[in-house]
Amino acid sequence: MSQYAFPPLRATDPAAFGRVAVLLGGTSSEAEVSRDSGRNVLEALRARGVDATAVDGISALAQALVQRRFDRVFNILHGHKGGGEDGIVQGLMEAFGMPYTGSDVLGSALSMDKVRTKQVWLSLGLPTPRYVRLLSGEDVHQAAATLGLPVIVKPANEGSSVGVTRVFSDADLEAAVELAARYDGELLMEQLIEGDELTVAILGDVALPSIRIVPKGQWYDYHAKYVAEDTQYLCPGLQGQDEAEIGRIALAAFQAAGCKGWGRVDVMRDRASGNFYLLEVNTAPGMTSHSLVPKSAQQAGIGFEELCWRILEQTL
């Protein structure tokens, strides 16, 4: 018997879903990862008899909505600016009364903005690394001095470790800011927590087993996420009381950001103190062969096809 209390399936007949659009690709910096995720979801739904069709990007979806070609949408677009995690596509689907998977307009928009997500968490006493918003023309050396090196510099609105640099010396600050500034939106400088990288998948109101990520290199960057075959994923990532605590914090963080349905919360555990620090929420996490939500669900006794079914069920 699994320790994770999942409700019984709400539908057993794939016809209950009608025609399903699997929304993938788009024009964000994470489009290719999204296409990979989408192909896997499409295959899993079809394997269970669901009438599912791939739709690439928001323009194609808008056309399909006008033509009333679908009954619901499985959103696996990643990122913003043509991705599906910033609330824009959710607003489009709301306007057409179209049921869709994942978080709504508020949860999607808020969690895409790392600065404002942190402000919400801090207001509720949830732990997150100290940070500085880097506005245009701001003195980055002064900001780093305020936080104390080492720091992380990243775009406030990107995912998949895009544009992120770990900075250990003052001399490397300018290059880090230059890289992050290639992406739209504000920049964020954050205290670098050195320790274990963990992530907790959320399915409905359940925090799934944590995963501890052990990259071969110094840290879990884009290459370690999507290319490397030697990154280790230990699941569950923690034991006993620590595992219960990270699940509690992750679920609280997810709900505080207005998120629902499913997602993933990234957490650091400080090596020196053992304290947890919330990094960000992903409202449409990857579903590729390297992705973490399927690994965590598997550990809790839910295979990939059932995971996709359960996510889609939340639209009924």
UniProtKB/TrEMBL annotation:
Enzyme Commission (EC) number: 6.3.2.4
Cofactor(s) essential for the protein: Mn(2+); Mg(2+)
Keyword Iron-sulfur: no
Cofactor binding comment, as recorded: Binds 2 magnesium or manganese ions per subunit.
Annotated residues for binding of Mg(2+) 2: E280, N282
Compartments where found: Cytoplasm
UniProt entry tagged with the keyword Acyltransferase: no
GO CC, alphabetical: cytosol
Binding annotation for Mg(2+) 1: D266, E280
GO biological process: cell wall organization; peptidoglycan biosynthetic process; regulation of cell shape
Record-level Gene Ontology MF annotations: ATP binding; D-alanine-D-alanine ligase activity; metal ion binding
Family the entry assigns: Belongs to the D-alanine--D-alanine ligase family.
Function: Cell wall formation.
Protein name: D-alanine--D-alanine ligase
Species of provenance: Pseudoxanthomonas wuyuanensis
